[in-house]
Amino acid sequence: MSLPQQTVALLQAARDLVKGLPADGILIVTETSLDWDEVERHLVGCRLFVAAENPSLTKQLRDNDNWHVIELDSEPLPTHERMSNALLHAVTTDLLQAGAHVVVLYNGISTLEDAPEPVDSLSVIHLGEHLEPMTNQDLRKLGKVIELDVLRAVVDLAKEIGREGREGQPVGSILVVGDTRKVMHVSRFLNFNPFRGYTRAERDTRDKKVREQIKEIAKLDGAILIGRDGIAEAACVYLDIPTDGIGLSKGLGSRHLAAAGISKHTKAIAFCISQSSGTVRVFQNGELKLHIEPLARPHVWQPLRMENSDDDA
Q1: Are 146 and 292 part of one and the same domain?
Q2: In the 8-state DSSP scheme, what is residue 159?
Q3: Are 95 and 166 found together in one domain?
Q4: Would residue 131 count as lying in a domain?
Q5: Whose CB among 114, 141, 158, 256 lies 3.0–4.6 Å from 280's, allowing a Cys bridge?
């Protein structure tokens, strides 16, 4: 089979970018098979990564020793999330280094499911020097007090808030997970609790529809409290907690101090979303445990900027 004309044009543009920038490689995120011999001919001399969610396609691609093949989970995800997962895998397995430039080719325009265009979009991505991969193994470092599926759901929620904001405006927030009784004991409400009166199912953060609603609530002042079972308990909460003795990196403001403080004085895990950069920092026992960059922000990703503490106040 031959490649569509626009796919050939994009392959040639990707090759030129690799040589002109220069870039460290080309990532193809595909849902369908391509004429791989022709792909290789157009990208000769380029370091090539291919990410696919189809096991049979992945098996076929592994026969080529010159390519780095990344197998994606078969769970249906938006293109930008599959792209992020592929890049995180490449960093985790040392195929790419933090700070690398990658040219990504992918299908970014919705089409009929039975006839998707193989490649219709191109992005140049810079993996910032402060990038730290986040995997299930990383989440397990937080212990077994909170189930992995709950942690994963809260991470997804925090990343979406950091990446998207609300209505085009950046949003900073704190998500506090676990030990809710003690957290409430050292906190106070800034406003009415928007979760009051709803059933458990309507507050379960493992449900994507619930997370969408919580993203609206994240615009309000105060922290959001989530039980160890993933049930959202309260929002608009002021964390009235001592922060003495907590050392944070320069540029992090009062929101990060509050997140570190609540994790130090309770058994809760705090996820702090920076308003200025969208970065998610995870605190436990008063210490920074994980640092997650908003990799899925619009298609040209920039290096991490120094955060303005005023944005985090």
Answers
A1: yes
A2: H
A3: no
A4: no
A5: 158
Q: How far is 56 from 264, CA to CA, in rounded Å?
A: 48
Tens-binned pLDDT, residue by residue, of the chain (313 aa): 578 888 899 999 999 999 998 999 999 988 777 888 899 899 999 999 998 777 777 777 777 777 888 877 666 666 777 787 788 778 767 788 767 889 999 887 655 455 556 788 898 987 754 344 455 566 666 777 788 888 888 988 998 888 777 766 778 899 999 999 999 999 999 989 999 999 999 999 999 899 999 998 998 899 999 999 999 999 999 998 888 778 777 767 889 999 999 999 999 999 999 887 788 889 999 988 887 766 544 333 333 344 444 445 4
Residue ranges making up the domain that contains 180: 136-312
DSSP state letters, 139-155 = HHTT-SSS-HHHHHHHH
- In 3D space, the residue among 299, 171, 179, 190 whose CA is nearest the CA of residue 238 turns out to be 190
- Contact yes or no for 52/58 (Cβ under 8 A): yes
Sign of the dihedral defined by the CA atoms of residues 8, 12, 13, 15, in that order: positive
Q: Are residues 44 and 95 in the same domain?
A: yes
Report how far residue 129's alpha carbon sits from residue 240's, in angstroms, rounded to the nearest whole number. 34
Please count the structural domains in the chain: 2
Please indicate, yes or no, if residue 47 is contained in any of the structural domains. yes
Q: Domain containing 37 — which CATH number? A: 3.40.1380.20
Q: Are residues 194 and 257 in the same domain?
A: yes
CA atoms within 13 A on the CB side of 192: 4
